[in-house]
Amino acid sequence: MTLTLDAPRIVTVDPLLELHGVNKSYGPVVALRNVHATVFPGEVLGIVGESGSGKSTLLRMMNLEETPDSGSYTLDLPDVDGNLFELDRFARRMLCATRIGIVYQNPHLGLLMKHSSSGNVAERLLVAGERRFAVLREKATDALAASEFPLERLDAPPIELSGGMQQRVQLAKAIALEPALLLLDEPTTGLDVSVQALVLDTLKRLQQDRKITMVIVSHDLGVIRTLADRVMVMRRGEVVEAGLADQIFQDPQHAYTQQLVHAKL
Ligand SMILES: Nc1ncnc2c1ncn2[C@@H]1O[C@H](COP(=O)(O)OP(=O)(O)OP(=O)(O)O)[C@@H](O)[C@H]1O
Ligand SMILES: [Mg+2]
After folding, report:
1. Which of 80, 113, 114, 215 is the most buried (most CB within 10 A)?
2. Which residues are near ligand 1 (CB < 6 Å)?
3. Can you list the positions of beta strands (E) in 119-248?
4. How far is it, in rounded angstroms, from Cα 118 to Cα 169?
5. Residue 48's pLDDT band (boundaries 50, 70, 90)?
């Protein structure tokens, strides 16, 4: 019997995100080569691959921080049309500020380290146009609470916080506007194993409660296995294998994926 696992989903639901034929080089370095990616609403796409395989570059593309040499990017959202790589800087910034949340590999990229934690989250709401102080305060506090940040530390600047707490502030900032798409770049890397588990639990809870569509990058297969519905394996800028998470972990087809999965077991 032939199983066509993807068929029912594809015919009934349009993808939220589609990237087609994305190429990007930095001088002689090919960071992305003909990358395609599809993410359906409410789903978690995990991207794995060795260091330098292009994972962060791909996530920056999804956050419209980078323009590829060629390729297209569409998001199936109200009032959002066409190839997003063709938008001007202002339109990109507004789209990202209002519809996309990101947690960076390095908290220094995502946070103002000397401003208060609640101020960091409020700033995100300000950029999106919110001006009422009480609403700013309430929404920032709600997002920090949902990220399981200790509310007695609302005024503490990220520079005084542990790595796990800094990731929670980034997460609160990313979800404050209830984004249609949440991008996470190595959200648990560099954290102690016990703290990693707590951040993973928070992400899992957010996913279950809010059904946020997520793309999560990690070189840690355990993280991807815990969170992802669908997995993309990258190597040297190329997607070597993509499929449902269960299938990738139980029956990897590509030699590189087999090596990754078996190294982890
Ligand atoms: N702004 C840039 N300028 C020059 N080269 C870059 C730039 N960004 C990425 N690269 C190169 O592109 C390739 C892919 O980098 P990328 O950061 O996307 O990898 P990664 O998979 O996220 O790696 P890691 O697991 O170490 O975070 C690397 O060879 C990197 O050196
Ligand atoms: Mg990276």
Report:
1. 215
2. 26, 29, 31, 49, 51-57, 105, 219
3. 181-185, 213-217, 230-235, 238-244
4. 8
5. very high
* Mean pLDDT of all residues in 174-201: 91
> 21: which 2 tokens?
């034929």
CA proximity to 155, closest of 170, 147, 144, 139: 144
Would you say 115 and 161 are in contact if contact means Cβ atoms under 8 Å apart? Answer: no
Sheet holding 29-39, edge to edge: 29-39, 17-26, 70-75
Residue 30 pLDDT level (bands cut at 50, 70, 90) = very high
Q: Compute, in angstroms, the gap from residue 31 CA to the centroid of ligand 1.
A: 6
CA distance 122 to 223: 29
Between CA 206 and CA 218 the distance in angstroms is 18
Q: Which DSSP symbol is given to 48?
A: E
The label of the residue with tokens 């569509």 reads 213
Closest ligand 1 atom number to CA of residue 24: 12
Residue 199 · residue 226 · CB < 8 Å: no
DSSP bridge partners of 26: 29
Q: What are the pLDDT digits (tens) for 63-109?
A: 999 999 999 999 999 999 999 999 999 999 999 999 999 999 899 99
For residue 237, which atom of ligand 1 is closest to its CA? 14
Q: Which of 24, 35, 55 to mutate to test the pocket of ligand 1 (most atoms within 8 A of CB)?
A: 55
Give the residue, by CA position, lying nearest to ligand 1 atom 11. 31
Q: Map tokens 């190597």 to a residue.
A: 235
Per-residue tokens: 129: 């146009």
DSSP β-bridge partners for residue 72: 20
3-class DSSP assignment, residue 20: strand
CA distances (Å), origin 68, targets 30, 72, 123, 200, 228: 11, 9, 29, 31, 26
**Does the reported pTM lie above 0.90?**
yes
